[in-house]
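debug: dumping io for the single-chain case to check the tokenizer round-trip. Nothing else runs in this session.
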Amino acid sequence: MLPIDPRIAARWLSVRQERSRKLWRVLVGILISITALAGAWVAARSPLLAVRHVVIAAGAHTDARTVASAAGLARRPPMLDLNLGAIRARVLALPWVARVGVQRRWPNTVAIEITERTPAAVVVGGDGHRSVVDASGRVLAVGSEAAQLEARQVPALPALVGLPARVAPGSWLGPGADGALAVLHALTGARLDQEPTPMTVTTISQSANGALSVVLSSSLASARTPVTVIFGSATQLSAKVSALRLVLAQLAPGSPATIDVQVADVPVLTNGNKSTIVSTTQRG
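debug: decoded output
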């Protein structure tokens, strides 16, 4: 075996030592990183970074305590573990809540802001049971709470008749109410209260076969007599409401009348025993 040149041997030794030092530095770096991550994980879940404050901007019908309970923050969970989407979903399930904003404010605060729904109508059951709903059919209040809420509304809420009224707060009326809600939305958007003879929706009735009719009343002292409008189905509502507006513009204030807009192009106005097809051609 040939002897190794001392210079080559020294070089090999130097290379091996340098590789060992590099490997050691890598191992130390990994160990430091793992220790730092573990420390951060422990610190993030320590009482120092747990939820200590919940700031709530509540509404008129949903108090801060109710929101806090729905949010589920009573156990003061770690800030890092908060599922903001889940908190938002739980608060949205409250009957009156339409929109929810949830923010994580380091180090210890969660801010929740809600926007409430607006009452749009009262559903009156055949047994007299009443439920206040918004324009989408969300049930806001039932029973005595609904009656108290209804009494405070100015102007009075329209009554929806012929729909199921015994529905729990926070639930929806269901597809069977879609026609009545569509008519309500269409008439509200038409702003009949700004007509020459201002009219407001008093009642929307839905028969067993789904046919819809509406009772309008005037806010003028000289025109208290209600006007009945027959819509039939909830199809072509835009055209039917346009025809209704044209007929109302020609209707003498205070005269009892029935307006049939089932065929929007040929609305029929009935005063007493006399029925007349009203022209829908706009002049000027």
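debug: round-trip ok. The domain at 47-116 is CATH 3.10.20.310 (Ubiquitin-like (UB roll)).
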